[in-house]
Amino acid sequence: MVARDFLMKRLNLLPLAFAVLLTSCMSVGTEQPRIRDTVKYSTIAKTSLEGQQSVKGRLLLKPPTENGYIEAIIVTSSGKEMEARWPEWAKKSSAINPSQQYDIEVLTRIYKEPDYVFHDILRVTKDNQRVIDASICNLHKIPMQRQIEYGRSAEDYPNWFFPHQEKYFPHDGNAYLCCGSGISHPTWKCAECRRAYDAWAKKHGID
After folding, report:
1. Which of 9, 87, 187, 197 could form a disulfide with 172 if both were Cys (CB 3.0 to 4.6 A apart)?
2. SS3 62
3. What sign results for the dihedral spanned by CA atoms 200, 204, 206, 207?
């Protein structure tokens, strides 16, 4: 059952339209936000940009979903709310005080056809001290690279692999998909996690 839960978190089974409807931190048909340091990805949609925006406000973390995902609500001083995905590995951080103001860097993806906006928490700081940084590998404590995930068929791996992967190389840059198919998204890749995955794959005869 544990292995199945890890696998279901990794599977990318829903077509894009259903993912848009079911993920509450996606804003459909909203005005395009201003982002900086933009990168264009051509493999996800006809037009898709990813960049950063800075927000100052309080952070409210929702209870985890059945799959373990946590959504954060950013409440600005003007009362505006923005929903963003909390880093999966961070779980519900006890370091976040919902009554305090934080400086928050948000990683925003803008999709076209269909039009929607998706937010991820990138970095949270308080008094110039980092509370959380999603670009740093939580296991190896080194900066990670942003890239399009590499799709692999989950059927090629034994059930025990998925909790093993989560523990020893969680940011290997792979997406473990049903029958090797699905929608590709940007993800974080840690060089050390990737080396650990490659060593495991070579040892077990997986290309």
Report:
1. 197
2. coil
3. positive
- Give this prediction's pTM: 0.79
Q: Let me know if residue 199 belongs to a domain.
A: no
Q: H helices within 35-190, ranges in order?
A: 161-168
pLDDT 10s digits, 76-124: 988 899 999 999 888 666 688 999 999 999 999 888 767 788 899 999 9
Residue 144 lies in a domain: no
User: Which DSSP string do the residues of 85-106 spell out, in sequence order?
Assistant: EPPGGG-S-TT--TTS-EEEEE
Number of structural domains in the chain:
1
Q: Which residues pair with 124 in a beta bridge?
A: 104, 132
Q: What is the mean pLDDT of the chain?
A: 81
Domain that holds residue 93: 16-133
Residue 146 located in a structural domain: no
pLDDT tens digits, residue range 4-36? Answer: 444 444 444 333 333 433 344 555 445 667 888
Rounded Cα gap, residues 83 and 60, in angstroms = 9
